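Retro notes (design track)

What went well: tokenization of the new backbones is finally stable.
What didn't: we kept losing track of which sequence belonged to which structure.
Fix going forward: every design gets posted as structure first, then sequence, in one message. First example under the new rule, 248 residues:
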């Protein structure tokens, strides 16, 4: 593992009297896939929202490659190489795959700045292959015509194309069939192989065990374990840490 790509230090988040995060710490190294686990209400989503700029922390610091950064908006996160893929990844269903991948960052050509459809199409076709879509789907296909797994693939392709250093996957395997789930898990492996880091959040521990290098467990707004090796730990042991049974 290389140096820390991202470090979140002593992050707190309060909503009035409710403390969603209580001094939580998280480190993701270069080229590492971290599984973030915890029961509902453990603070996983809040942690990710803070890192992706969707929510401002009440206190605490975020460092990217050792440099302290302010995450006041999602564009701050994107500018720092952090791309978040949510369950229903904000795709515009009536637009084509190519337009969704380049949304807001479209290549243009000529003096009039017309959209370069050929460039978008060629890049999209290559990306879909890269993220494991084997059937030949034209880049002009509207998102509404795709399956849930194919939509996830498009969202992941977008994150990979814009060369995000860290891709955050929030419950990417929810509501997916077996083949589509395997597709998502393959994307995660491919992302790592091409040098990206990932944070992978899933309710299904078995999915996490298949792809991550290290597991972090949150409980009641704090990180209670951050160095679990899936190769030397059982699913049952991790479940006990998630529920707090390991202290019983």
């Amino acid at each position: 593992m290389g140096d820390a790509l991202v470090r979140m230090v002593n992050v707190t988040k309060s909503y009035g009297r409710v403390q969603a995060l209580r001094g939580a710490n998280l480190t993701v190294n270069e080229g590492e896939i971290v599984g973030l686990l915890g029961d509902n209400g453990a603070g996983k989503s809040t942690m990710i929202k803070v890192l992706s700029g969707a929510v401002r922390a009440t206190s605490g610091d975020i460092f990217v490659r050792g440099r302290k950064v302010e995450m006041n908006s999602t564009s701050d996160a994107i500018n720092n190489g952090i791309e978040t893929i949510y369950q229903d990844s904000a795709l515009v269903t009536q637009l084509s795959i190519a337009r969704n991948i380049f949304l807001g960052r479209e290549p243009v050509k000529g003096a009039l700045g017309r959209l370069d459809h050929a460039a978008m199409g060629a890049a999209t076709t290559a990306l879909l292959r890269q993220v494991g879509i084997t059937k030949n789907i034209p880049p002009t296909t509207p998102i509404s015509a795709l399956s849930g797994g194919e939509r996830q693939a498009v969202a992941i392709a977008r994150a990979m194309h814009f060369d995000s250093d860290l891709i955050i996957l929030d419950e990417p395997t929810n509501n997916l069939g077996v083949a589509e789930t395997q597709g998502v898990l393959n994307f995660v492996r491919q992302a790592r192989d091409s040098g990206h880091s990932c944070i992978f959040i899933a309710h299904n521990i078995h999915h996490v065990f298949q792809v991550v290098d290290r597991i972090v467990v949150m409980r009641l707004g704090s990180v209670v374990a951050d160095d679990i090796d899936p190769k030397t730990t059982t699913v049952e042991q991790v479940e006990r840490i998630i529920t707090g049974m390991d202290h019983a």
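Added context from the reviewer: The longest strand covers residues 4-15.
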